[in-house]
Amino acid sequence: MTAFDLVIQNGKIVTAGETLDADLAIQGGKIQAIGKNLSGHKVLNAAGLLVLPGAIDPHVHLQMPAGATTSSDNWQTGTTAAALGGTTTVIDFIEPLENQSLIEAFEERKAQADSQVVIDYALHMTLSSIIPERMAELPEVIRAGMTSFKTYTTYDGLKLTDEAFLKMFRRVSETGGLVMVHAENDAMCGFATRELLAQGQYGPEAHPRSRPASAESEAIERVLAMAGLTGTPTYIVHISTAQGVAALSRAQARGQLAFGETCPQYLLLTDREYSRPDFEGAKFVCAPPLRKETDNAFLWDALSQNTIQTIGTDHCPFFFKGQKDLGKDCFTHIPGGIPGIESRLALMYTYGVVSGKLTLNQWVDRCCTKPAELFGLYPQKGTLMPGADADIVLFDPHQERVLSHQILHENVDYTPYEGLVLKGYPITTLLRGELLAEKGVMYAEPGNGKYLKCNLPRFEQLS
Ligand SMILES: [Zn+2]
Known about the structure:
By secondary structure, the protein is α/β, with parallel strands linked by helices. It is 30% helix and 24% strand. The protein is globular, with a radius of gyration of 21 Å. The two termini are 35 Å apart. It binds zinc ion (ZN). Zinc ion (ZN) is lined by residues 59, 61, 314.
């Protein structure tokens, strides 16, 4: 009988499609076999543990310039925290400067990441301009491995007009790529913000009212109507409201390829956080803002019904002391974004699986498999099957921990989930068959991660 490089024995293997008690064999960094009584030169005993595909975070912002400051996790600290939380691939963004070619911006961003990353990574390309020179670059961008294009309905310098959206949708359709949209009605947010400021409301507690729920649902409805006209596959990032889910669901009912992402913060937290004393509400300032408990519940239902396909984090950390306080005098100057790259898998297990809102397989599907499928990384990533990269998490479903800033490795001085009780935690993470991280210790060197070229997504194969 062959002995493999490494065999993970006696674990419970969990994929999007099945759960089985079996051994898993690794050879040359790839999964080679799944079955009973496999033997290896090295053995990991996973008795009592869940064996999952390495998680994929489809939405992170490492080392991202944001006005006067930069998100506080660089590629090294951010991917280290990800690995310790069971994530083996992140997908970050390229934001080309005005007048910069998309390919040049890609090469700069990749050069910045390559020497630092400890896990694998891919990139989405942001389109904030649709001038002919940029649109002409799309085939080359796709060949270089970016098949998803991020767009905005809000923010000066990023937002596209309806006319530009239609042209962009048409061009991306012709290439076979996927459009991602940050959907909030810019005029509604601007109007609400100006009224609050005119009333002298400058604190973080005004933030949720400055970006109302109706601004999100209006933008999702409109963007998906336009995508329907051009037949363009579209992915709405960080959906935060029940009304936003309803708009997505209507597009799906019309037969569109319309997909959705939500994040732990929109499932677990509410806008009551903004009323904390001593400016602490600033720790929760992100866009879209945290909403109501009814929205949390609706989003959980949408995840379990597959109306929403993925859980990303939108990890975009800023120190409370030294960065968030740029907005001490006015909430509009608080850098927008919160940390979460490390805690996603554990939070979604406790509050999704243990609480009965998601099945084990749905948990793996939304955190690992669907992100790989939608962004063209499947089946190299996102599943456990012979031939796939041996990116594997051993997850202890019995380990209880209290989530706190002290146990995390994100380069930031707080976690928005401080004090939440976790029932289950990732203990060992392998990347391409090598031990990456275990029990809070990182074993890989910076530069260990690889840039992944995304293929065009194949929607007809989606489970
Ligand atoms: Zn984001």
